[in-house]
């Protein structure tokens, strides 16, 4: 009883404090600062710097797969550009996998109604993982098409063993069209991530996964896939939606055999870098607000919306502050993360390297869902921050970005900081077309709408500059640590 | 003067006849026939036969490039299916080119901002023509990007000679979205057809043409391209819209060199066939109404909307008449044309083989713009037919296909009949998405909407059955003969 009483008292006290804070919020920003934020907002909407940076990263440097010469060139380029702006630039080493895509092709070699002497091409792309190659001459086996993990698990092992499993989970386009693209993607991408292990468990000799993301242009969607060292490392590839459906229809008519050639290689890790560039704070140089995107990309396209856009709007934050002579009170740290795609290596390395300095990380922002029109700000961590940030949202409302939403979707690279309690943020982006393109050959510069990119730069720059002088500390809340982070 | 007088008199007489025909039209169809047409229309909307045929042609047989084993298998398959329905089937020989796609790839090997040791992939697909290969090791040269024929022609020869011309004519998406897809396509495809000769004239060593048709999924659009025996036969390929834009942007910054490998072969002609299947007329078996689509396709996709759909709705016309025990008075002739894509060889061969019998060709229908919702009927030839066909349009209006429009867009294979004076027809199809897919790897079964395919079958079947018993001869008008047909 006494204990319960104490607990209740504690709760009431907390509630009172909270209500008081709501009722009489200290003005977090002076009217002069709010005027600067409006000025910065307008400046971002008129600045083409981010687009030019995205163009250089994608057109001139090209795909930036972690470990590649292009990724190395991109590190040098971004570092040099940020030095040009007068920032204090450090390259922090990150050991990254060096995965190299090899030959990749597939064909149906036996199927119902086949014309003698012919095959049907199946468009495949290898998924990145450990030991993911077929023999050089390829693997040929019957396919078994399933729609879900449950369907596969329910099959007797002898119906799967020795065969090639085809996961035909459909991306929920209605969901994506209605604004829930990330949720739709999450449902589909589970098969890319875990399908290999699930198929290996049942004795399959290879696995093909229908491409995650809406796809109706015969484009495969690459990405990483998992493995279980206790199971055989079977070859895994993504197939296009069209080809997954074709295989499902043909397999319903009779036996279908497929020939698959994948020759990717995972070479020994190489050292790459997170690019860290500080615009030193005038009052609290030791406290940092991170503004970031990831510099690496997949290799099929040129990584424009995933994620040259995110790096470019981060770089523009620094460029705008310099151009407008706005001096932040806390340090604004631009970060171009390395090897997000192949396993968040840059984000994890940073959290480890700065583990003793987490308390000085006031906030972290990442942009990694493309360049679509931003509706506002995703606020990770404690919901109390929503109320605090309303004046910032009011500034952003002028470009249609006035929404504040509590959300954990604040970018993969800053998850390690988020679980350490650092408040995290990202623009709420319109992702209705994002999943059509990212991880495919069509993720190219033309997918970035220059005006919408400027809108994103406006959100990120305004938010970063608003966080830099806040007197109140943002409420910190550490969510449970993910298994993969332990 | 007397001559002019005579001419005016003739015109007045014609006008009078025309007005009389409009004022008191003879009832072209009995109420019983109109009832049959309504029944047929409803039957088509409930029949899945065409879809099943399109599925077999695309899924089971696959791409059907003229001269290929798949094209031969498709001829046998369609002939057998139509024999099953009780039709009188003939295979009429057509000598067709045997063009075989080889290896095809390209990369930018020098360009501004290039990371040392890297290249950028350019997605290419060879265009079909005579002598269209590079040497096996490829061709490397600087590119010169132009937006139009005029821009190229205005250049001094020395700025083009020895280089690779890139035509970057943009497909007019606004035009296509507003319903003028064929006109937009016509503007763009001129570069695919004539770009090779235009570039060769200026001394280019190869030509790349931005893919005709809207394209934002890094999909190249194949097709045939011309050649001039008096000029060098330079290699020609289509590039994706994305890659054309990339090259335009980089070339604006400095010299760009491209390495191109194309190894297509044009083997000696082979004999293929038009499939001709007659449902004999009860009163005028010698008079025919052709109902058709083309059986061949390009090789990148499986030729679903171009043009398994057209063949399938033609086959369904026969199937429905049989199923509903409707006996046409004139012969309904189902035709699956061969080698439309590589040069309308089937259509030209048919016109030649039946040159002495043109007068007995009462009408010809072709479906070759996909499987989109039909809005009515394109009426080729004399506009007087529009008035005559109103009762048929009234029947079709029940499925939203009640429009009658005078148009020459009635299908390529029946152009040789049209210029010989045969009245031609096609469904007016919604082509807003057609040009996204046709001639690309994404022209696959899933692009056919089953309901819309049934609507097309309804238009074609009703029109064909309505033409079969007409007492009045349709007005015949022979347009000028195209140069390529002479």
Number of strands of chain A: 16
Name the poorly predicted regions of chain A.
Answer: 1-23
Number of helices of chain A: 15
- Largest sheet report of chain A: 8 strands, mixed
Indicate the proportion of strand residues of chain A.
15-25%
Overall pLDDT confidence of chain A: 93
Helix/sheet category of chain A: alpha/beta
The helix content of chain A is: 25-40%
Q: Within the largest sheet of chain A, what's the order of strands?
A: 1-10-12-11-13-16-14-15
* Largest interface: chains, residues each: A-B, 43 and 43 residues
Question: Secondary-structure blueprint of this entry?
Answer:
Two copies of one chain form a homodimer.
Chain A (H helix, E strand, L loop, with lengths): L1 H22 L7 H15 L3 H13 L7 H16 L3 E13 L3 E7 L9 E3 L1 E3 L12 E8 L2 H5 L10 E4 L5 H5 L3 H21 L4 E5 L25 E4 L1 H11 L5 E6 L2 E15 L4 E11 L9 H20 L6 E8 L7 H9 L7 E6 L7 E6 L4 H5 L1 H7 L6 E4 L8 H5 L4 E6 L4 H4 L12 H18 L19
Parallel strand pairs in A: 5-6, 6-7, 7-8, 11-12, 11-13, 13-16, 14-15
Antiparallel strand pairs in A: 1-10, 2-3, 2-9, 4-8, 5-9, 10-12, 14-16
Helix pairs in contact in A: 2-12, 2-15, 3-9, 9-15
